[in-house]
């Protein structure tokens, strides 16, 4: 009987924190007409602004379908590297690799199963065949090992502190439309084996009406070892109010893998944001894709930011809250410059800045 391949953890690999140094950031180019209105032109401009801001900090790769290659190359600044990398949509956090590093300086990746956030039971589009090949292609481009994980999981469903602690939500990872045959203990063991973590902190739910089934990266993330930022609502009439307090209760009653109590920083959520009539009318309507209707509430959150080497790129969503969120993030990241990017067009597609980016960690001295 063949011997199973040793897990990443058994081989010494682990996932570093997002706030650790990067070599690069990976993105994809939006063009899907049932996700992005008006032929994705407004979304493409938002993606250009995100890529431009991150490129101040590290190399940015943007994967593009062939038919949009010239357009993307003309729109993106010269320092951004445009590569042909076909996809079904543009959510690199979820369809791209989860990178791992080794103490000896090697880089590897985890190739999770992907079913478009639920497959035929609540998934957001069909098919997702091109998305499933992205991780394999990036592994080939970089010439690094690829560990195939026997579990459906998206990158936005997890955050790590780089010191053994992972945070996620029960709503997503224990959802029957992902891995109905796995219980919580089995899922925890897979996370330990493939990400090299020791402690898993389970928050009950993600943000209200998050169409990813509650990705943690829209609700809560690590900003330093022992420190997290949590989206927050004081409005008792808003369903998000109860979700935030459930999460806070867990965070304040647990310890990380090093035995530390967590310091929780509250980041106010924007006022409820809704799809407007003209925003919905610019979309193709397909039976195989998630409907986006006038009046639908969107899961807006300032926690959906990207931590680069020298910048933090945050979404600008609500003029009444943007400055407060900016000030809090700048205080949390005194050694980085916080850059706000108008991000409503990304939110209209169902996610935000963290969802469209994926960091590639910097390698060690043996590179």
TrEMBL record:
- Keyword Protein biosynthesis in the entry? The reply is no
Record-annotated active site? 355 (amidino-cysteine intermediate)
Q: What class of enzyme is it?
A: hydrolase
User: Which UniProt keyword terms apply here?
Assistant: Hydrolase
User: What reaction gets catalysed by this protein?
Assistant: agmatine + H2O = N-carbamoylputrescine + NH4(+)
Q: Under which EC number(s) is this enzyme classified? A: 3.5.3.12
Q: Which domain of life is it from?
A: Bacteria
* InterPro entries in the record: Agmatine_deiminase, Peptidyl-Arg-deiminase_porph
Name a biological process GO annotation.
putrescine biosynthetic process
Could you cite one Gene Ontology molecular function of this protein?
agmatine deiminase activity
**HAMAP family, alphabetized:** Agmatine_deimin
Sequence similarity? Belongs to the agmatine deiminase family.
- This chain's protein is named Putative agmatine deiminase
